[in-house]
């Protein structure tokens, strides 16, 4: 047998550099998580954009109701328009039972976002069902201000 010290040795051969493709499984997981995060961010942005759009539309309708009130002084049109607008917003928020409620039950649904001033209770509860509604300027402005604040609070809530 040959002496190991006299055997011819070859130079050290390093293994080939690792290829960049395909990436290791950890990179696949990281890429999938980043893609999922991006999709969730886009979905949330789109949803927020839609929420702002319907809120702007509701506020524009309230502005129209206010302009009509100032022009015609029709209390029934103002009151019914605001009540219908608030009910539509409740339905949009997913509160279908609130939109179908009437009387004091509906006012309690409104108060889930903010308290309804006591002087507006009879207006919101009963006046809508009367053929003629007499509103003075203070009542009309209080009703419009309440609706405007309620819509702002509704815009901040998630449906």
Task: Explain what this protein looks like in three dimensions.
The protein is an all-alpha fold and 159 residues long. The chain has a domain at 53-159. It is 65% helix and 0% strand. The chain has 6 helices and no strands. The protein has helices spanning 25-72, 75-92, 96-100, 103-110, 121-125, 137-156. The relative contact order is 0.11. The model has no long low-confidence stretch (mean pLDDT 89).
Which tags fit this structure?
159 residues, mainly alpha, 0% strand
Describe the secondary structure blueprint for this structure.
Layout: H1 25-72, H2 75-92, H3 96-100, H4 103-110, H5 121-125, H6 137-156
Give a summary of the structure in a few sentences.
By secondary structure, the chain is mainly alpha-helical.
């Amino acid at each position: 047998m040959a002496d190991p010290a006299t055997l011819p040795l070859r130079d050290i051969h390093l293994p080939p550099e690792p290829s960049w493709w395909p990436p290791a499984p950890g990179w696949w997981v990281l890429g999938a998580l980043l893609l999922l995060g991006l999709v969730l961010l886009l979905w949330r942005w789109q949803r927020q954009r839609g929420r702002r759009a319907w809120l702007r539309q509701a506020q524009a309708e309230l502005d129209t109701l206010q302009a009509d009130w100032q022009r015609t002084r029709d209390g029934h049109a103002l009151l019914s328009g605001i009540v219908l607008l608030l009910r539509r917003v409740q339905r949009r928020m997913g509160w279908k039972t609130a939109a179908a409620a009437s009387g004091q039950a509906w006012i309690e649904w409104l108060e889930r976002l903010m308290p309804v001033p006591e002087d507006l209770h009879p207006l919101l509860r009963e006046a809508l069902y009367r053929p003629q509604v007499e509103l003075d300027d203070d009542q009309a402005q209080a009703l419009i201000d309440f609706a405007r604040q309620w819509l702002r609070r509704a815009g901040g809530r998630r449906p």
